[in-house]
Design goal:
By secondary structure, the protein is an alpha+beta fold. It has 12 helices and 17 strands. Helix 1 packs antiparallel against helix 3, helix 3 crosses helix 12 and helix 8 packs antiparallel against helix 9.
Amino acid sequence: MIDPNRFLSDLHKLRSFGASGVGKGVVRPAYSEPDLAARDWLASQMAEAGLTPRWDAMGNLFGLAEGPSLLLGSHSDSQPTGGWLDGALGVVAALEVARAARESGGPAISVVSFQDEEGRFGVTTGSAVWSGGVSLMDADQLRDHDGVSLAEARSLLGDRVGASVDAAQFTGFIELHIEQGPTLDTSGEQIGVVTDIVGIRDQVITLSGQQNHAGTTPMALRRDAFQGLSAFNARLNDRLRNVVTPQSVWTIGHVSISPNASSIVPGQVRFSMQWRDGDAARLGRMQAVIDAVLEEVATEMGLDVEKGQMLGLEPVAMDADLRARLEAGAEAVSPNKWRKMPSGALHDATNVARLLPVAMLFVPSINGVSHAFEEDTHEDDLVAGLQVLAHAAGVFAQ
């Protein structure tokens, strides 16, 4: 039988690793000291629950049941300044369901906390490598915004690393997560059963011009890299208008200007370009527009363009059987207070779908806030999500 109080206690304990002191926020980026400490604690809890802890080369942490098992979990790393539930909810709920299943002689449940879901080094890097979407050799070349390579970060794992974990032992994967949007909170509903997860493209782009004196260089002669980014951003919204739908999104989220001084015309700007949509063909059409606008601006303003490695994942539909089990659980736990909905956020389930049937469920995010210290969910909604997960996993949830 699942224990809501034990579940909530563990969830708050996990928050203590990297607690920000501001609200319920956490600072627990992948491979940081708090991240590794949190994983060590999770490994100890897995062992106490009768699971076998296993770290792979990426730092993905599994708690393995004996024999074929259903895999539950999410991730426990955070954004540089993140919320306490993003990923952590799914891991702790999985641990509670696995623990309850073992205590009651229920079905075999394994648990996972994937590494670097939040993209310090890429896009859901840990599950991407585990699922074969990216080789470990290629992933090791990825660098964060401070220039640290993934290979350097992985070295901090030390002797924790063991043999790789074979996906053949798992019958499927279910991930519980906060919605990270306003739909459930606005509607007053308690559970969202995910129908599909959008696809994503993510690329780092560099525009290079000519660094020069800000007081003596005439405007008409400037090759100002930041002005190039400004023009690109302004034109992009208009050019994408006839390609996208209201559900399509695109973001310039990280910008680095060089030399970043008030009296110097910027010679270079490096920025992230990310776009998401539920249709793979539309993602391609969006990319064509982005490339065309870049080339147009660069030509007009005398700039050079360098494009980094294209990272991305295709849209994924949830497994019909697992989804039906979640829908039955949602109706049992929250009758008339749940809905079917797509996920506009990216999740590890996208990568796992290469290997296993996958499904997801959401609980509300208060005011739709996530990736921020203010991120939160009412405790009764957290428990409802746990109960639906347990129901779908075949574990007594009352």
